[in-house]
Structure formats: structure tokens, C-alpha cells
Amino acid sequence: RLTVYEDNMQANINKTFGLIYSQRVLLSLINKGMVREEAYDTVQPKAMKSWETKTPFRELIEQDSKITDVLSKEELDECFNPKHHLNQVDT
Q1: Cα–Cα distance measured from residue 75 to residue 14, given in angstroms and rounded to the nearest whole number
Q2: Residue 34 and residue 41: Cα distance in Å, rounded?
Q3: Are 54 and 48 in contact (CB under 8 A)?
Q4: Which residue range or ranges hold the Adenylosuccinate lyase C-terminal domain (predicted)?
């Protein structure tokens, strides 16, 4: 049985500035019809800037109308939901 310490997990996620969610944002854009290359070219610079400037990834994503015109706030909430990474906990 694996013991998960949610507070520690959240602290570790915060250390990445939310970059662990970049793939979910990328895939959500593709699923909504954006061409993969365009989605990558849109998300990847935000991920790099987030890491280099220590700016929360979501903050940069929400500032880009190319993304927010495709993904609603609710869809972004789902992209940034840490529960996705806990699917196998308590199974």
C-alpha cells in the first residue's frame, strides 16, 4: 500500500510552477481541434518562460488568448487538476 501525503505532493507540484500540467494543456488544445504543431508552439514557450522566470505556468497560459479562445476556464481547471495524477491512489 502506498501512502500519499497530499500536502507534500502539492508542495512538490508548486516547485515545478505547475509545469507538470503542460501536457494536459497541450492535449486539450489538440482535442479541441488545434493542430499538434501549433499547440506545441503555443504551449512550449510558456513552459520555458515559466521555468526561467519562476512564474506559475497557469498564469502564463491564462494570459494567452490563443489558448483561452479554445479552452474555457472550466477546461483549464480540469487541465490543472492534481487529482488526475492520483487516479491509482486507494485502488
Answers
A1: 20
A2: 11
A3: no
A4: 17-91
Tell me the domain boundaries of the chain: 6-86
Tens digits of per-residue pLDDT, 60-78? Answer: 999 999 999 999 999 999 9
Q: Write down the pLDDT at residue 39.
A: 98
pLDDT of residue 89: 60
pTM of the predicted model, to two decimals? 0.84
Q: What pLDDT, on a 0 to 100 scale, did the predictor assign at position 91?
A: 52
CATH homologous superfamily of 6-86: Fumarase/aspartase (C-terminal domain) (1.10.40.30)
> What span, in angstroms and rounded, lies between the C-alpha atoms of 42 and 64?
9
